[in-house]
User: Which sequence fits this backbone?
């Protein structure tokens, strides 16, 4: 069928795989953004820099401490989450109750600061990070070659997104987080430390960015600018899925990754703008997003 259209099956499925991998990063990053915005009403423009920081933490722990990929996959999200929690407690908390624009400008400035620090220290040429030996190689499926590491990225992203969504929607802690955003005064009256919940939520959202950075390190070179372009696409994914909709961000992230892959096959010139065209159409038809609720 595809050969009748002049498209080799290997090219089609190869681009779909690349789209699925991009979608995995879109899903994890947009989930963190939606979590922070939906529960804290903070537009976190530093998310791309925190994703970059996760990749650098993986590289530095390997280079200076000899900690491999699997250790970095656990350590980096914690370190990035702690840094994010300190940012929220020392800086973002001072903007509570103000217009969203102030948080956007502050996090944008923090993103430029973090990128500048890493650029000054390591340059912009990119640093290699090897695929772990357990995930090297791949399998020939007949119609395409599937690298094990890329399959792992997709599986890991799905599992993490599912676990976080269940934690937010099906646990007592998640219920407290949602209640604290709706009526913090009432929740505080029941003895709940609302500021601590806010810090925890921001740290969790930022930790997801760090986790995605570790996943990305063996695929892309580790460099200070790796998150600056990606964050624009991730914001578009969040807008399409619905600002604050965690499930919407995950589903839309994977779907738009596949759409991007298909666009590269059928109309490569439009691949870089396809997501933004979809965003414009969605905003015209449904301003709250596909999964969002109208204000």
Assistant:
């Amino acid at each position: 069928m595809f050969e009748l259209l002049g498209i080799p099956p290997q090219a089609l499925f190869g681009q779909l795989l690349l789209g699925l991998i991009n979608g995995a990063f879109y899903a994890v990053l947009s989930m963190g953004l939606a979590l922070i915005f939906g529960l804290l009403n903070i537009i976190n423009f530093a998310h791309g820099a925190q994703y970059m920081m996760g990749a650098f933490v993986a590289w530095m722990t390997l280079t200076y401490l000899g900690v491999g990929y699997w250790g970095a996959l656990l350590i980096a999200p914690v370190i990035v989450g702690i840094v994010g929690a300190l940012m929220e407690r020392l800086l973002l908390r001072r903007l509570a109750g103000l217009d969203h624009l102030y948080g956007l400008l502050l996090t944008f400035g923090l993103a430029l600061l973090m990128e500048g620090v890493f650029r000054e220290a390591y340059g912009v040429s990119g640093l290699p990070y090897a695929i772990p030996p357990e995930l090297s190689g791949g399998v020939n499926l007949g119609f395409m070659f599937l690298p094990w590491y890329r399959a792992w990225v997709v599986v890991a992203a799905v599992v993490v997104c599912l676990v976080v969504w269940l934690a937010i929607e099906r646990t007592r802690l998640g219920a407290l987080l949602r209640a604290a955003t709706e009526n913090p005064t009432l929740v505080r009256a029941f003895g709940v430390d609302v500021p601590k919940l806010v810090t925890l939520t921001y740290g969790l959202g930022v930790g997801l960015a760090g986790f995605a950075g570790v996943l990305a390190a063996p695929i892309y070179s580790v460099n200070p600018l790796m998150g600056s372009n990606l964050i624009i696409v991730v914001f578009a994914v969040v807008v399409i899925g619905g600002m604050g909709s965690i499930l919407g961000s995950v589903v839309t992230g994977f779907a738009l990754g596949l759409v991007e892959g298909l666009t590269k096959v059928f109309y490569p010139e439009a691949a870089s703008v396809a997501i933004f065209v979809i965003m414009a159409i969605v905003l015209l038809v449904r301003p709250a997003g596909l999964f969002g609720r109208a204000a």
